[in-house]
Amino acid sequence: GNAVPDIDWIAIYGKLGFVCDCAETIKKFGGKKDDGFWFVPVVKGVTCNKVVMALRKAGSKVWTYVEDLDTDVSTNDRDPNRDGSYVVGFRRTIEADEENSDKTASTLKAEGHKGITLLERLLLELGYFLMTGQNLDIKNITLCAGSRDSDGGVSGVGFRSGDREVYVGWDDPGDSDDGLRSRSEVS
Fold it and tell me: How confident is the model at residue 137 (pLDDT cuts 50, 70, 90)?
């Protein structure tokens, strides 16, 4: 069976201070239970800063390259506070998608890749951490190809085991590395 657990989003949004009927939200968007995927409800009102605060409150150390992610990471392919709530699916894996390794954000964009946004990646981290006490991306970094900061940079999220902390870093859209991988949106 699949060792990576599903996430109880109703409980997660409870920790964020939201009353989310996530089951209804997922159903409304045609979400299906699938052992191979996480379907992440991204609810209007949730922000990167709120998720980082919830992670810290839950006992996870988080380092971010800038204090106010909401202001700095201003361009997102999907944004619940601009477009309303939605559900997005990603492969249910600890590490980001291997086939996207060594591809720059610019290359991925040119290929029509629909990548994870910073908010979606942080929600996955919070959900996974609250369900398991563990972190995602122990060996690699998720390139949040669906988001850009005010300078056009791309966020990356990983886990520094030495410091036992989740970190949100920043990369140039032209940067590539075997360990820098976007997570593909599965619609």
Answer: very high
Q: How many CB atoms lie within 10 A of CB 169?
A: 16
d(CA 150, CA 72): 6
Which pLDDT value is given to residue 29? 60
141-143 and 147-148 beta bridge pairing: unpaired
The Cα–Cα gap between 73 and 17 comes to 23
pLDDT number for residue 17? 83
Tokens 């140039």 locate to 172
d(CA 140, CA 157): 9
CA–CA dist 63, 115 (Å, integer): 22
Q: Is the pLDDT of residue 155 over 50?
A: yes
